[in-house]
Design brief:
heterodimer, A: alpha/beta, Rossmann fold, Alpha-Beta Plaits, 2 domains, B: mainly alpha, 13 helices, about 0% strand
Chain lengths: ~300, ~270
């Protein structure tokens, strides 16, 4: 296992009666492109705000790089939260120089970063003259200053047009290929599926699922099954540990096959219970369906 | 420290509005100080016409009393300086750059220190503008000048610096609490121009004299012009150390509360 970059343990934060983050535990390892996936208001930004020291926590703990949090910790992390935050009257270069000052590093890499995010030509223009896409790219550039080990990007494609989205995604992928750990908050499944290696699904501040993205897409299978006595079938499937969440739809019962269970196991089990099945198909479900299923179960 | 100074400097040096505000402020101070004598003389000569005894036209620009009269006059422009503080401190909240600074690795102590540096620098600039005005006007208007006369009452500039620093500290505290420039300017103005004067009028004098703005303003008492002397009023020509102590106490309280809010509040 790669070394642990961020370890979150039972983190909690409430705003009045609303639990923004509810006993959240996560582990993120070196080299992962880790997505915090969830609808708006699921606690993604609050979680990132807490681990970056911008928001005070109510309970739990977190640890970066297996060390005590201190003033130098944040200089090893490049981050943007929600929207790009810069001084509107300052040029791209000056805004990045200010961040370099805060991180106590030289300005040497700034031109290179501006080139990388495609803003070198506009480096002297005031930030307020930038389009939203350019602002987002400058924000990613700002996160790259000081060659940090970890990048935190919160909704980096929010509000962008398709071309802008494609540019940012290509940029993130190229950064990931450099071997950096990336933590990305997003409410777009498609985005997570395309860029990320690992995912934690959040809803109402709780972690509903965490694991590898490809495992989730590849190995999660739905079975569609039918027998003469559908009621008995539903009952037996509900009792069976090899599947999850069976439900009746369009004259079939659908259920998730739990990893390790094969169709043969299922058939065998039902046969043992005296049920003869007359239909059995397996479908791989997309992350989107999976995500919606997870959320639907928790309503 | 030098590092924090550079961060704060970069933010303001590149801001055209910052320069506009600073230059306007300096122009206001210089205009007020250079125009004051003509204004006072006109009042004096008007009064002189109706007076049975002639009132001498005594210059307010002669060393060493010029230190007293000009620091007193410049004190009237405190609200302008306070507005500048409010404008640039609340900017950090409206641009949300304070949050970005913290997640970039600036500690909350350092955020506080950069804001403290900012108000000290502004107050310092103001004190320098006043000092230069004093030197220029004093050198041209004092007859029989000796070096000792120039420095004799220069301690007034120290009191002036402390006075405006205290007001700037108060403006910074309000800015940190309220976060919005418009709202903060309104609240500051209501307190400065209405609430404290009314309180000062309503309250018993023994209590009213400890109100913050009254305390800061009392450090430099009204200068004694020829006109004042005629009326037989004689104001204090020294600085009461008790006032200095109380002002420093107020300033410390403002700074401690500002620090605690920056330290504790989610950004």
């Amino acid at each position: 296992m790669e070394p642990c970059i961020l370890n979150i343990n039972e983190l909690s934060k409430s705003y009045g009666r609303i639990k923004a983050v509810d006993k959240l535990s996560l582990e993120i390892h070196k080299g992962e492109v880790f997505a915090l996936l969830g609808p708006n208001g699921s606690g993604k930004t609050t979680t990132l705000g807490i681990v970056l020291g911008a928001i005070d926590l109510d309970g739990g703990s977190y640890q970066w790089f297996d060390e005590e949090f201190n003033s130098t910790t944040l200089r090893r992390i490049g981050s943007i939260l929600e929207v790009p935050l810069f001084y509107p009257f300052m040029s791209a270069t000056d805004n990045l120089k200010l961040i370099a000052d805060i991180k106590r590093i030289s300005y040497d890499g700034i031109d290179e970063i501006l080139t990388q995010v495609g803003l070198y030509q506009r480096r002297g223009s005031a930030f307020r003259t930038f389009s939203l896409g350019m602002k987002q790219r400058l924000a990613v550039g700002a996160a790259l200053i000081g060659n940090p080990e970890v990048l935190i990007l919160d909704e980096p494609t929010n509000g962008l047009d398709p071309q802008g989205i494609a540019e940012i995604r290509t940029l993130i992928k190229s950064i990931a290929e450099m071997g950096k750990t990336i933590i990305l908050a997003s409410h777009l499944l498609d985005e997570v599926q395309k860029i990320c290696s690992h995912v934690a699904v959040l809803d109402h501040g709780k972690c509903l699922f965490t694991g590898r993205v490809d495992n989730m897409i590849g190995k999660t299978r739905m079975v569609e099954i039918a027998a003469d006595d559908m009621n008995a079938l539903l009952l037996e499937l509900t009792a069976y540990e090899g599947v999850m969440n069976p439900f009746l739809i369009d004259g079939y019962i659908k259920a998730e096959l739990i990893n390790g269970t094969t169709p043969a196991d299922l058939n065998n089990y039902l046969f043992g219970k005296g049920l003869i099945i007359n239909h059995l198909t397996i479908e791989k479900i997309s992350l989107e369906k999976y995500f919606l299923n997870i959320l639907a179960d928790n309503v | 420290m030098k590092y924090l100074l550079r961060i704060e400097w970069r933010k303001h040096a590149k801001n055209p509005i910052f320069w506009a505000v600073i230059i306007l402020y300096i122009i206001s101070v210089v205009t007020e100080l250079f125009g004051a004598e003509a204004f006072i003389n006109r009042i004096t000569s008007n009064a002189s016409k109706n007076s049975p005894i002639p009132i001498p036209n005594l210059s307010i620009y002669t060393f060493p009393d010029i230190w007293h009269s000009l620091t007193y006059l410049a004190g009237f422009l405190k609200p302008l300086l306070a507005f500048a503080v409010i404008l640039f401190v609340t900017n950090e909240f409206s641009y949300k750059t304070i949050r970005q600074h913290i997640i970039n690795g600036l500690s909350r102590e350092e955020v506080f220190t950069t804001k403290l540096i900012f108000i000290v620098m502004l107050s310092f600039v103001s004190a320098v503008a006043v000092s230069l005005s004093v030197l220029i006007l004093g050198l041209f208007h004092t007859t029989g000048l000796q070096f000792g006369m120039i420095t004799q009452k220069s301690f007034f500039i120290g009191a002036y610096f402390l006075e405006i620093l205290c007001v700037a500290g108060f403006a910074m505290l309000l800015s940190i609490i309220l976060k919005r420039s418009g709202l903060t300017i309104v609240v500051f103005s209501v307190y400065f121009f209405i609430a404290e004067p009314v309180l000062g009028f309503e309250l018993n004098e023994d209590v009213a004299r400890y109100l913050p703005l009254k305390t800061f303003g009392r450090m430099i008492d009204v200068p004694n012009t020829a006109l004042m002397k005629l009326f037989g009023v004689n104001f204090r020509e020294y600085i009461d150390l008790m006032d200095v102590f109380l002002s420093l106490l107020y300033l410390s309280i403002f700074l401690v509360i500002t620090y605690l809010i920056i330290k504790k509040r989610d950004t």
